[in-house]
Design a protein that fits this description.
By secondary structure, the protein is an alpha+beta fold. It has 9 helices and 17 strands. It folds into 2 domains: 5-70 and 176-345, 3-Layer(aba) Sandwich (Aminopeptidase), CATH 3.40.630.10; 72-160, Elongation Factor Tu (Ef-tu), domain 3 (Beta Barrel), CATH 2.40.30.
Length: 357
């Protein structure tokens, strides 16, 4: 799939806009501005989940969903010497923190800082410190707690990484927070294609970008009760397990460039999954399979278990180096996820068989 210039411009702006869990509003504004021409109506809830609706009067409702939030840090403690200690907001990885530049979102605007670490010369090599939440710290150039506070930095301020979007070897998109703003991009592109190809859907389509997935699927849990969908298709990322130090026997066998990953899990509805599989086969879209033993760990679980049970399925995008600042996805896979969701929507009909007993 060849991406439109306007699509790539949106993707770059969207990824480069910080959208930490609980503070997703800046990224959500970029997303809503992009999808506005492709939907009939835009809504958002009290916590910031946004959704564009096609055919809002329709009684049968189909959701395609991604999540908008990225992992980050909170300021947790400021020392008398002006150093900042942190706690996680989502699954932030302390092992990659040392030497990273950060943006501290203070009350007076963004302040740059760095995660400091003792120089290699000062370590004996035998008992080298290991990065832990208890020992990683941020230096923002202040030498007293008052100086830190004069910069507008207080306990509770959000901290994000500034690493920005780029393409690598004409094969990969690379950025922090591809998990899962790339999902928001893909569902937005589905809405664009439906509009530009003048496809008429026999149901209401809710293109939904949920908040707070990284801390417990909370945005999806709330919005599922608001929309009360009949069918949900969630897209999120999953691990490319072909890179070093990943055990395929535990994590499965998926790779970037191998196509969308269709999940098998208790919360994944048989009939919706089979429809997706048949669509991939009939449209010659490459795909991979993966299994989750209990939960998928994605918003699929929240939608599936809401409202007495909503038939839901998960289409994942293989990603390398999850929860780092150099997350990578295949451009070809991104195009194929968009195509698979788009083509599956064209097969959904109100009154279709959803019970599989």
């Amino acid at each position: 799939m060849k991406f439109e210039k306007k699509s790539l411009k949106f993707l770059e702006e969207y990824l480069n806009t910080s959208s930490p869990t609980g503070y997703e509003h800046r990224g959500q504004k970029v997303w809503m501005d992009y999808i506005r021409p492709y939907v009939d109506k835009i809504e958002f809830d009290h916590y910031g989940t946004c959704y564009g609706i096609v055919n809002p009067e329709a009684k049968f409702k189909v959701v395609i969903e991604a999540h908008a939030d990225e992992i980050s840090w909170y300021v947790n403690y400021i020392t008398d010497d002006g150093l900042i200690y942190v706690i996680r907001n989502g699954g932030s990885d302390q092992t990659i923190a040392p030497s990273k530049v950060v943006h501290i979102h203070g009350e007076k605007g963004i302040v740059k800082g760095v995660f400091g670490w003792p120089a290699i010369h000062t370590r004996d090599g035998k008992n080298d410190p290991v990065p832990k939440i208890e020992n990683i710290f941020i230096d923002c150039g202040a030498i007293t707690k008052k100086e830190v506070e004069d910069l507008g930095i207080y306990v509770g301020c959000m901290i994000t990484y500034p690493d920005e979007f780029f393409e690598m070897n004409n094969r990969y998109f690379v950025c922090r927070a591809l998990d899962n703003r790339i999902g928001g991009f893909m569902i937005a592109e589905v809405a664009r294609l439906l509009k530009e190809n003048k496809k008429t859907l026999p149901f209401g389509l809710y293109v939904t970008n949920s908040v707070q997935e990284e801390v417990g699927l909370y945005g999806a849990d709330m919005i599922a009760d608001t929309i009360k969908p009949n069918v949900t298709i969630v897209t999120d990322v999953t691990h490319d397990t072909t890179t070093p130090m990943i055990e395929k026997k535990k994590e499965g066998d998926q790779k970037c460039g191998g196509g969308p990953v269709i999940f098998f899990a208790p919360s994944v509805h048989h009939n919706i999954r089979e429809m997706i599989l048949e669509t991939a086969k009939s449209k010659k879209i490459p795909f991979q399979r993966a299994a989750s033993s209990r939960s998928t760990g994605t918003d699929t679980d929240a939608f599936a278990h809401s409202n007495g049970g909503v038939p839901s399925a998960l289409i994942s995008l293989p990603l390398r180096y999850m929860h780092t600042t150099v997350e990578m996805v295949s451009k070809e896979d991104v195009g194929n996820v968009i195509k698979l969701i788009y083509e599956t929507l064209l097969k959904i009909k109100p009154g279709m068989k959803l019970k599989y007993h």
